[in-house]
């Protein structure tokens, strides 16, 4: 049976007042002239239920919040939502008796949170499912939401003659079809999971195929050799590398043996170098010592010479009385001289002790002895220095001889092996580089093989999933018969309205959309909006009644219709067809009573009367938004000619 969804009342709150509109009858008609708020009231239903509604400036400027009393399944809930501000993203769930706040639920989904959509779908008993959809070129499962289901409930004025349940919106088309299948039992959770898996496999297959193409293109551009050719060449290179490694090891072994033979000679050379270094240090020290001895001898000789000159001067010059300066030959007679001072140098005359000949002789003898001692030590140090020079020369000669001998051995035995080792090492390095390059190419080939294997595996999984989908669809095939019945009822209803040019009317088994005279819904617009509106109404009414008559069909029991007489003329035939449509509304309301709910917005009063119909009437003195002065047609220019435009106040 249809899922039970009903709007009991809607309360509109402004800063000054609030107004409650009740919908107690099976059908309620909202009437009033252009711009009094009929469409806005229907949009507020959608807003209160968590949808994204087009709200007019009058609503946004004056309405603070809207509160809907709703029956969902077996549960009575009151939903309150503000119009603007930060809180507009959540809906408050109130206790229907006390109106106290029970919880606030977000409108938009986020990870780990329960949304209003989740809450309402659970209350309705409608399955919460994900569908296999593609967004931005990738398979990303999308949740089916209450707002998606509401597209089958709400026929907006601007869409009623343009599209059926949003079928022209490409982003919504997968959801529309999946919702239809769920409502009519043409799918279930298992089948939907299989379809999501198929989408994911397709995405993986597409990605791996593209990767295979890219890697193959890289291999073709970088090296023309096949994997088999590379494998054979790699084997050959590894054999060649083995032989080159062996030859290099042999050369190094021979070099080590020759190096061992030269060890004694190298040790002798090192010892000679160390001894020569020590001899050079001894030679430098001896030279410094001899220089010091020579300085001492020279100083003593200088002292002896000075003493001898002093004694001679005293002996030779002391008897003379100088009357002229012995240097410049000037007269000294007139020169003032203190008593006891030298007439020439003006220094005090020496006392007799200072010029004692015996003392001078004794000093002279001591200096001569000192000179002899210093000369003897100098001769000894010079002898040691000569010995050190001789040893240093001998060691230098020995070092030169040892180096010549070692150079000769190295030149004849070691150097050729070094050259051979360098050449062999270069060959080994080149072979290893070639092996690395081929190994990298083979890794790319291995990647290609792995991708090939993965592609085969994915294709195998897809075949199995497609098989499972087919089997599962066969199990649900019994529900396909419902489509035939649904199509028959739709055709009977639409042709019964005696619309012009309508000969056949069915519901397509693939798109689940109405097809009239073999043409899709879009082509009907060329015949006029009235025909397209009639087809859309017949389609929605057929779904509604079918759900009420079949226990396994999950069509919502609520239908909200904005402007069912849109694009109808006022001639007798158009008025007759409009009356037939309203007659159908009355028949449904009388037949099903409270099991369904029709809420209809229309400019004029309905062309029929029925106790099953309730009325909500607006005029310019009493528009939908309470407490707002409406300019009315006499005080404001008429902007629109179409009755039910979503932008009306």
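Q: What amino acid sequence fits the structure above?
A:
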């Amino acid at each position: 049976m249809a899922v039970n969804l009903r709007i009991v009342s809607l309360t509109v709150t402004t800063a000054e007042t609030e107004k409650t509109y009740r919908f107690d009858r099976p059908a309620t008609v909202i009437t009033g002239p252009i711009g009094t708020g009929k469409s806005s009231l229907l949009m507020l239903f959608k807003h209160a239920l968590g949808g994204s509604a087009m709200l007019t400036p009058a609503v946004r400027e004056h309405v603070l919040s809207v509160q809907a009393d709703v029956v969902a399944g077996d549960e009575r809930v009151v939903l309150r939502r503000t119009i603007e501000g930060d809180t507009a993203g959540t809906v408050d769930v109130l206790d229907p008796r006390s109106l106290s706040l029970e919880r606030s639920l977000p409108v938009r989904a986020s990870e780990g949170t329960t949304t209003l959509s989740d809450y309402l779908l659970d209350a309705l008993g409608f399955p919460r499912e994900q569908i296999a959809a593609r967004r931005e070129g990738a398979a990303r499962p999308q949740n089916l939401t209450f707002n998606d289901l509401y597209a089958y409930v709400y026929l907006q004025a601007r869409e009623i003659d343009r599209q059926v349940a949003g079928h022209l919106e490409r982003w919504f088309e997968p959801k529309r079809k999946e919702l239809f299948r769920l409502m009519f039992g043409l799918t279930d959770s298992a089948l939907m999971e299989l379809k999501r898996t198929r989408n994911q496999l397709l995405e993986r297959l597409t990605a791996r195929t593209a990767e295979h193409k890219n890697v193959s293109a890289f291999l073709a551009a970088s090296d023309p050799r096949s994997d088999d050719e590379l494998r054979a060449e790699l084997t050959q290179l590894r054999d060649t590398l083995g032989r080159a490694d062996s030859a290099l090891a042999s050369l190094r072994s021979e070099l080590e043996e020759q190096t061992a033979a030269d060890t004694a000679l190298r040790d002798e050379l090192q010892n000679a170098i160390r001894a020569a270094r020590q001899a050079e240090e001894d030679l430098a020290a001896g030279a410094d010592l001899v220089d010091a001895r020579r300085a001492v001898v020279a100083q003593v000789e200088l002292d002896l010479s000075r003493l001898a000159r002093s004694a001679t001067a005293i002996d030779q010059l002391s008897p003379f009385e100088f009357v002229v300066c012995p240097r410049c030959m000037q007269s000294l007679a007139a020169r003032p001289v203190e008593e006891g001072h030298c007439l020439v140098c003006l220094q005090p005359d020496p006392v007799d002790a200072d010029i004692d000949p015996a003392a001078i002789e004794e000093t002279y003898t001591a200096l001569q002895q000192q000179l002899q001692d210093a000369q003897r030590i100098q001769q000894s140090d010079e002898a040691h220095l000569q010995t050190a020079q001789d040893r240093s020369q001998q060691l230098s000669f020995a070092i030169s001889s040892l180096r010549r001998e070692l150079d000769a051995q190295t030149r004849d035995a070691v150097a050729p092996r070094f050259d051979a080792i360098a050449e062999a090492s270069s060959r080994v390095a080149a072979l290893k580089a070639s092996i690395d390059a081929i190994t990298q190419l083979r890794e790319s080939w291995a990647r290609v093989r792995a991708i090939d294997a993965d592609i085969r595996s994915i294709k195998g999984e897809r075949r199995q999933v497609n098989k499972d989908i087919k089997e599962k669809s066969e199990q649900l095939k019994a529900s396909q018969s419902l489509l035939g019945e649904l199509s028959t009822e739709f055709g009977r209803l639409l042709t019964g309205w005696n619309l012009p040019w309508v000969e056949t009317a069915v519901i397509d088994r693939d798109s689940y959309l109405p097809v009239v005279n073999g043409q899709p819904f879009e082509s009907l617009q060329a015949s006029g909006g009235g025909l397209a509106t009639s087809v859309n109404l017949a389609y929605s009414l057929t779904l509604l009644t079918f759900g009420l008559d079949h226990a396994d069909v999950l069509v919502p029991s609520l239908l909200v219709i904005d402007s069912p007489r849109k694009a109808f003329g006022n001639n007798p035939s158009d008025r007759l067809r409009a009356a037939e449509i309203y007659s159908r509304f009355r028949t449904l309301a009388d037949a099903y009573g409270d099991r369904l709910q029709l809420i209809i917005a229309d400019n004029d009063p309905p062309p029929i009367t029925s106790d099953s119909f309730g009325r909500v009437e607006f005029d310019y003195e009493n528009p939908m938004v309470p407490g707002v002065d409406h300019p009315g047609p006499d005080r404001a220019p008429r902007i629109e000619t179409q009755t039910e435009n979503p932008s009306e106040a």
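Q: And what stands out in the fold?
A: Residues 58 and 649 are 5 Å apart (CA to CA).
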